[in-house]
Amino acid sequence: MNNDKRTISRRDAIKLVMAASATIPMVNFTSLGAEGVATAQPYRTDPVLTKIYHPGDFWPLTFDDAQSETVRVLADLILPAGDGAPAASKVGVVEFVDEWISAPYDAQRADRKTILAGLEWIDKESQKRFSKNFSKLSLEQQTAIADDIAFADRAKAEMKEGAEFFSRFRSVASGGYYATRAGWKDIGYIGNIPLAEFKLPPKAVLERLGLEA
After folding, report:
1. pLDDT higher than threshold 50 for residue 164
2. Residue 213 resides in a domain
3. Is residue 96 part of a domain?
4. Helices 106-130 & 93-102, crossing angle to 10 degrees?
5. What is the pLDDT, as a whole number, of residue 81?
6. Predicted confidence (pLDDT) per residue in 100-114, tens digit
7. 103 or 212, which is more confident?
8. DSSP conformation letters of 50-61
9. Exposed site from 19, 84, 121, 174, fewest CB < 10 Å?
10. What's the total number of domains in the chain?
11. Among candidate residues 127, 159, 161, 157, the one with its CA nearest the CA of residue 141
12. Domain range holding 70?
């Protein structure tokens, strides 16, 4: 932890997003079956690109108010406001996570189990340590729990479940954050825009890549 109370740095979050994006499989058009976790059916065509969609338009969402609040607090702990960038909850990350875990596809279905169990775990751990749910703790108390589960390879045996949850939650939340314009701006991505001129990389870089003799 650094002294501004961030669980991980923004630079670390970006690296996690890049790693997570490489592991997301193609959408598998299968329903959830008899498990009963959602009633939605997968959509089999592309969305209408001229229409503005809102959370819940495609399938029923999952989080109740208490879960949404825990997600908000945890997402903002991982990706707080700073350096001109807004906190995660200010750019729709809570809604993104809810939409993600509610989708009726295999990858999201697995994340649903992990994240819902993890939200339950983190409240139980908070009650055990501080007699309050996670969202009601002080920043210092929240940080103490987050630090213990921030890295799965360093977590104690009794923290492994929490660490697995935290790792997946961090990837999903960070993926949502850096898919927004605010997230793009935070990492200096300008997108597909016209440029007055195009400057080649420095000659030394091209030579190192074998692109220039």
Report:
1. yes
2. no
3. yes
4. 120
5. 95
6. 999 999 999 999 999
7. 103
8. TSPP-TTSSS--
9. 84
10. 1
11. 127
12. 10-208
Around 155, how many Cα atoms within 13 Å sit in the side-chain half-sphere?
20
Predicted local distance difference test score (pLDDT) of residue 44 = 62
Distance CA 72, CA 200 (A): 42
On whether the CB atoms of residues 7 and 150 are closer than 8 A, the answer is yes
Average predicted confidence (pLDDT) for the chain: 83
Backbone angles phi, psi at 168, to 5 degrees: -70, -40
In the chain, the amino acid numbered 124 is: K
Yes or no: say if 47 and 89 are a contact pair by the CB < 8 Å rule: no
Q: What backbone phi and psi angles, to 5 degrees, belong to 10? A: -60, -35
pTM score, two decimals? 0.73
> Around 65, how many Cα atoms within 13 Å sit in the side-chain half-sphere?
0
- Is the pLDDT at 157 greater than 70? The verdict is yes
- Tokens representing residue 127 in the block: 């009650």
Structure tokens at 120: 């339950």
On whether the CB atoms of residues 129 and 141 are closer than 8 A, the answer is: yes
CA–CA distance, 7 with 165 (Å, rounded to integer): 15
Q: What are residue 85's DSSP bridge partners?
A: 82
